[in-house]
Amino acid sequence: MAIETLDHTADVGFTVEAASLAELYAQAAMALTDAVTDVAAVRPLRRRRVRVTADDRELLLIEWLEELVYYLDAELLVFSRADVELRDAGGGLVLTATLHGETYDPERHPAKGAVKGVTYHGLEVRRDGERWRARVILDV
Description:
The chain is α+β, with helices and mostly antiparallel strands. The chain is about 25% helix and about 45% strand.
């Protein structure tokens, strides 16, 4: 997993890269978890099936990560794996995924920070040669 943490004044950011666009969204999910706690400490004990849609890749990334923030806030779930599928749906994009994780436990999952949301600031999803790259800033 290639995650690079970005320095930002009041927020936390990351960049991820992957060979495919679907893998890029999966890596971004793991980077979000890693902003909250150590993703390696999260066991894949529970599953959630997720579907999000958007008009473009950047908005899809926002919708996707906001869905994960929702699960963290509403159900205290953190995820260690995301099996992502993407498809074009008549001018828009559809992301379906199975998320694998567990209930957040402060005894097992050391807190790194609380994510309030995903920002549009500096948001980027682009192809760079043979790789896909994304840049995201989280509101903490």
